[in-house]
Structure formats: structure tokens, C-alpha cells
Known about the structure:
CATH superfamily: Trypsin-like serine proteases
Number of strands: 16
Number of domains: 1
Shape: globular
Protein name: Serine protease
Keywords: Disulfide bond, Hydrolase, Protease, Signal
Family: Belongs to the peptidase S1 family.
Order of helices and strands: EEEEEEEHEEEEEHEEEEH
Pfam families: Trypsin
Structural class: mainly beta
Number of helices: 3
Distance between the termini: 37 Å
CATH class: Mainly Beta
GO molecular function, one term: serine-type endopeptidase activity
Radius of gyration: 16 Å
Amino acid sequence: MRADARRVVAALAGVVAAGVVAAAGAPAASAGQEPLIVGGTPTTIDEFPATVIFNVDGAQHCAGSLVAPNKVLTAAHCTDGVKPAQMEIIGGQTNFSDTTGEKAGVTDVWQNPDFTMDGMQHDNSVLTLDKNLSFKPATLVQSADDPAYQTGADVTVVGWGTTSENGDVSDGLLKVTVPVADNATCAEAYEKIGDNFDKASMFCAGVPEGGKDSCQGDSGGPAYVDGKLAGIVSWGQGCAREGFPGVYTNVGNDYQVISSHLG
């Protein structure tokens, strides 16, 4: 059984300030995989200008990162089964309830062909927007051998997800910093509960005692190391649970194929 992907599902739908944050029309994740910022602190879009809201059918679905003026990198489990016409990207907005962000439609989606919902390997997609956005794009880590993936490296995760497992989504942008976890230890933890952790296309980050993590609604959002986009929020066992760090797409591992779709 696969743990939960970290996009918004119906159980997390709620009202945020003046706007309704509801479940997207995409298929719900299996019971177990869930992403949002738990144990985080408020931040602003000025600190992380490449972070974008990814709505489907007008409702909160996932997050993403601007990686070129008209390209957004997000998680493949956020695009699986969703048509470009259903998608909307909003940049430059700290709060969901704000209405001043730059909006763009999506004209094309490249979804990594090696991704499957069962395995979650290579969980990345590139969206082509119908206009350029004016914000500074993120810089990508370019190799799986980058020091960003060394055990103990500080990872800063950003998003609007829930602030507790099965809790309410956050109106304001949040961030949390957690260390890269040992790959072998992470793989052992997840394999004990029947999940396949792919050491090549994934990495883990979190504290052993739990309490800090991404959660539902953070899927597709950025995980930065030393200012570079090293990961994409992907999946985990619940949120911030002891012994189960969050799982992220290894951007460096898939850099070559991702970058080939950014031109």
C-alpha cells in the first residue's frame, strides 16, 4: 500500500478567509500519502518568489515552482488525470485569500513517463503557461551527486498545506526547515509498511521525532537546499509522524529530462 500523496483531498476542504479552498477534481490520493507544512513558520512570497499556487477547476490542488518565465515544475501526481484546461497557476501571492496575484492558464503538460501513482518514482511534471510570469524563477540542482542530498543537509520546504495531519489548510505561505534523512534508514522504515522507496528518484527529509513536515496541500511545492530547488513535495506516511520523514522527488536525479522541457 502506498502512503499518501500530499495534494488536497476532499476531507481537507475548508474556508480560508474570503475564499473557498476545496478539493480538486483529480482522483483522491490513497489513504496514507499526505502533504502540508507542519511545525512551520509564516513566510512571504518575497522570500520565495518562484512558489506558485496550482489550482484545478478553481480550487486548491497543489503548489509548484516557476522554473522559467512560462514553465512551472510540480509533482506528477498533481497532474495525473487532469487536463490543461482545468489548471490555473497563480504567482506573487502570499495568501490564498488575496486576489492580487498574477494568473496564468496552462497550455501543455509534460508528465514524466516513468511516473506511476502506485510507485511514485520520478514524481515530476512541467507545465507550460499561456503567458510569462514576472517573478524570478528557481534555480535547479543539476545532479543527484550534489551535496544538497547529503544526510543532514538543511532542506527548506514551502507551501500552503495543512498545518497538521487531516487539519485545515493554511491561508498564508509557510516554511519549515528539516534535515535530509539517511536514505537507507528511510527506505527501511517505509518498506516495513509495504511502501517502495526508490533511492534514485526520491530522498527523505525530516526529524526522527517527527513534528515538522510537509502535509496535504503542499504537493508539488519546492524543497530548497542552499537556495536551489533540490526537491518536490511528493508523499509520506501521514504528516510529521515519528520515524517517517517526508519523501521528496530528487530533482537532481531527473535534471536532464526536466531541463529538456524548459526551452
